[in-house]
């Protein structure tokens, strides 16, 4: 192979355009990562029990949220394609109809969180872990409606390539969340003014962390909602300020495309929640170790999510225009950028080694696993990144059923049985469990890439 051909193969074409869309999302995700990191560090210094319970509660919460997350976010696919078709009416119509779906989903999720104390004992975790986990879930799911509406609004902005609006909303709300964490987790004696004590709160541990996240979630929704309704451009072109009547035809279409995408996310998150539950049966140390591993991986997941959304939006815009060849080209370039990022992060993690774990906890029992866990994190995030991009590109094209089937096949028919075999049957360590996860995510990313290369997504038409 000639030098010029090698350079052409390695070069990322249209990388500037992809990054123009992705960078605000990446900054938003980094702010979310820093928020989550702050939660983890603060809870880790509060107690190992609080850290493990919040990690388990967060995964269970997000697993149930994933029943509706991609359904609420499917506004992105329809709005991206409508934007590519210059169909302003459809942009506003789909934003409102998906918002109705988001509200219904959020109410269901809040009720599930409130009554989760009846099912948490099934996890067979120690009673003290279950009690703290329930407190986290109950308060965290109070904001479920606003979480789902925020996803819908993200789709409204990102589908039109307005990725900076969710960025600023995310940065502000995540910053508020960190301040609330410091205040509520450890408590504060307050300050004296005019003969009274102000802002004094008792230490609240995991409850404080969950309340802080719920308040920040509401603020995130409020900022995006105001940005959608008040500027003249959205009012003039999309009539976004005018409520629509419920249109069951549009809602049905959103369900047909969005539900497989949501089920894909649900299968993935439930699988990972059960993975965490199985690890938790080995005790609080194993659970806390796995939670730190997830936190480390968030530095790959969040920026990769930015690339995923950028690729999904570009796919949607170009498929809406009917330019499938260009859509495929942009998809391949997004894959390439994701690979470069994940390989760079893998090298950094390997060089840092076990020192990464010391950021999160001083517990020597947890640090004993660090030297083995960090290289596994480095390898896992390469395959997980490819999985996310594959899901995003196919979703942007409206080809969501294959992502669901691949998630089910690998997640529940391979990943969970393998984890049970390694951890429960063979009494394997947390490191052994994560080796199994690396294998499964490698399989899943390969299947999604194969689907993208097959070009079958070209035959999906959302506007029939």
Structure characterization notes:
The model has no long low-confidence stretch (mean pLDDT 86). It is built from 19 helices and two strands. Helix 6 packs parallel to helix 12, helix 7 (127-140) runs parallel beside helix 10 (205-229) and helix 18 (401-425) packs antiparallel against helix 19 (430-454). A hairpin with a 2-residue loop joins strand 1 and strand 2 (196-198). It has one domain. The chain has helices at residues 3-10, 15-46, 48-65, 69-72, 75-84, 88-114, 127-140, 144-158, 164-186, 205-229, 232-237, 248-280, 284-321, 324-352, 355-358, 364-367, 370-396, 401-425, 430-454; strands at residues 191-193, 196-198. The chain has 464 residues and is mainly alpha-helical. Helices cover 79% and strands 1% of the residues. The chain is globular and about 55 Å long. It has a two-stranded antiparallel sheet with strand order 1-2.
Secondary-structure blueprint:
Blueprint: H1 3-10, H2 15-46, H3 48-65, H4 69-72, H5 75-84, H6 88-114, H7 127-140, H8 144-158, H9 164-186, E1 191-193, E2 196-198, H10 205-229, H11 232-237, H12 248-280, H13 284-321, H14 324-352, H15 355-358, H16 364-367, H17 370-396, H18 401-425, H19 430-454
Antiparallel strand pairs: 1-2
Helix pairs in contact: 2-3, 2-9, 2-13, 3-7, 3-10, 3-12, 3-13, 5-6, 5-8, 5-13, 6-8, 6-12, 7-10, 8-10, 9-10, 12-13, 12-18, 13-14, 13-17, 14-17, 17-19, 18-19
Helices, by number, come to: 19
| Overall pLDDT level | 86
Q: Which value, in Å, is the CA radius of gyration?
A: 22 Å
Q: Count the E strands.
A: 2
The share of residues in helices is: over 70%
The ordered string of helix (H) and strand (E) elements is HHHHHHHHHEEHHHHHHHHHH
Number of individual domains:
1
* Low-pLDDT segments: none
How far from one another are the termini? 45 Å
Helix-and-strand structural type: mainly alpha
Q: Please tell me what the overall shape is.
A: globular
Largest sheet: 2 strands, antiparallel
């Amino acid at each position: 192979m000639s030098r010029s051909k090698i350079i052409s193969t390695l070069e990322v074409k249209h990388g500037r355009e992809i990054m123009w869309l992705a960078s605000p999302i990446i900054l938003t995700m980094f702010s979310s990562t820093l928020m989550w990191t702050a939660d983890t560090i603060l809870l880790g210094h509060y107690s190992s029990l609080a850290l493990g319970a919040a990690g388990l509660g967060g995964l269970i919460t997000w697993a149930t949220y994933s029943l509706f997350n991609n359904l609420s976010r499917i506004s992105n696919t329809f709005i991206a394609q409508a934007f590519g078709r210059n169909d302003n009416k459809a942009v506003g119509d789909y934003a409102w109809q998906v918002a109705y779906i988001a509200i219904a989903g959020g109410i269901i999720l809040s009720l599930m969180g409130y009554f989760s104390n009846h099912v948490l004992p099934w996890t067979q975790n120690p009673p003290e872990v279950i009690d703290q986990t329930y407190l986290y879930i109950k308060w965290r799911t109070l904001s479920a409606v606003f979480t789902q509406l925020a996803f819908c609004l993200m789709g409204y902005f990102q589908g039109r390539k307005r990725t900076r609006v969710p960025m600023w909303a995310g940065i502000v709300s995540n910053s508020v969340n960190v301040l609330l964490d410091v205040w509520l987790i450890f408590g504060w004696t307050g300050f004296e003014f005019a003969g009274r004590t102000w802002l004094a709160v008792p230490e609240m541990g995991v409850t404080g962390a969950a309340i802080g996240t719920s308040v920040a979630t509401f603020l995130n929704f409020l900022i995006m909602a105001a940005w959608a309704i008040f500027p003249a451009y959205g009012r003039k072109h999309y009539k976004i300020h005018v409520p629509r009547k419920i249109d069951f035809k549009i809602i049905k279409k959103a369900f047909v495309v969005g539900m497989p995408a949501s089920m894909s996310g649900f299968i993935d998150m439930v699988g990972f929640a059960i993975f965490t539950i199985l690890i938790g049966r080995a005790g609080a140390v194993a659970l806390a170790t796995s939670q730190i591993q997830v936190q480390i991986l968030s530095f790959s997941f969040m920026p990769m999510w930015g690339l995923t959304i950028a690729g999904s939006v570009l796919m949607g815009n170009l498929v809406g225009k009917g330019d499938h060849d260009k859509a495929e080209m942009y998809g391949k370039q997004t894959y390439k950028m994701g690979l470069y990022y994940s390989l760079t992060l893998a090298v950094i993690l390997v060089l840092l080694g076990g020192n990464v774990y010391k950021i999160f906890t001083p517990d020597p029992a947890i640090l004993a696993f660090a030297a083995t866990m960090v290289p596994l994190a480095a390898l896992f995030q390469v395959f997980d990144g490819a999985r996310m991009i594959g899901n995003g590109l196919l979703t942007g094209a409206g080809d969501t059923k294959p992502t669901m089937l691949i998630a089910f096949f690998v997640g529940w028919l391979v990943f969970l049985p393998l984890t049970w075999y390694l951890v429960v049957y063979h009494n394997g360590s947390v490191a052994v469990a994560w080796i199994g996860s690396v294998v499964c995510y490698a399989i899943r990313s390969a299947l999604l890439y194969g689907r993208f290369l097959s070009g079958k997504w070209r035959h999906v038409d959302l506007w029939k």
